C-alpha cells in the first residue's frame, strides 16, 4: 500500500490547521479594532444631540485586508465561521454611523442581513437617551425606521435559523421604542406648540373629574 497518500493528507491537515490559526489571529486583531470603534461610536448615547463621533476605519480596513489574503480562492465559506461574526460587527459600525449621520441607511450601503438586524437594540437605547436630553423628534424617526425594517423582513420566508431568531428580537425593540413614542405623544412633547402638563396639572385634572 502506498503510504504517500497519508503523508500528503497529513501535510494538508497541518497546513489547514496553520491557516486556521493565522485566520484566528487576524480576526482577534480585527475584533480589537472593532471594539475600539464601537466604544467611540457609543459616545452618541451620552450626548444624542451632539455631533456624530468621528470614526477612522483605516485600522479595521487594514486588518480586513490581511484577513482577506489568508482566505484561499473559492474557499470563502470553508472558514466563514471563524470570522463572520467579527466582520458583521464591522459592517454594523458602518451602518450605524451612516444611520446617525443621515437619519436612515443610505442607498449605497448594502449591509448583510445579520448586520441590518443587529443594531436595533442600539437604536432603542438611543431613543430612550434622546428623551433624557430633550430630543423628542429623533425617537419618532427611529420608530419609523425600525417599523419599516420589521415590515420588510416580514415579507421574507425565514426559516428557524440564526437570522430568524435575530428578526424575532426586533419585535422587542419595536415594542420598547413604541413605549417611548407613546409617552412622548401622550405628553405632547413632540409638538412644541402644545403645552405639556406637569404633575400638578395632572392632579388638578383628576380633582376636577372627581
TrEMBL record:
> GO:BP terms for this protein?
RNA metabolic process
Q: Which family does it belong to?
A: Belongs to the translin family.
Protein name as annotated: Translin
- Coiled-coil features, chain-numbered ranges: 6-47
The record, for Pfam families, names:
Translin (PF01997)
User: Can you tell which superkingdom this protein's organism belongs to?
Assistant: Eukaryota
Its localization reads: Cytoplasm; Nucleus
**UniProt organism field:** Rhizopus delemar (strain RA 99-880 / ATCC MYA-4621 / FGSC 9543 / NRRL 43880) (Mucormycosis agent)
What would be one Gene Ontology cellular-component term for the protein?
nucleus
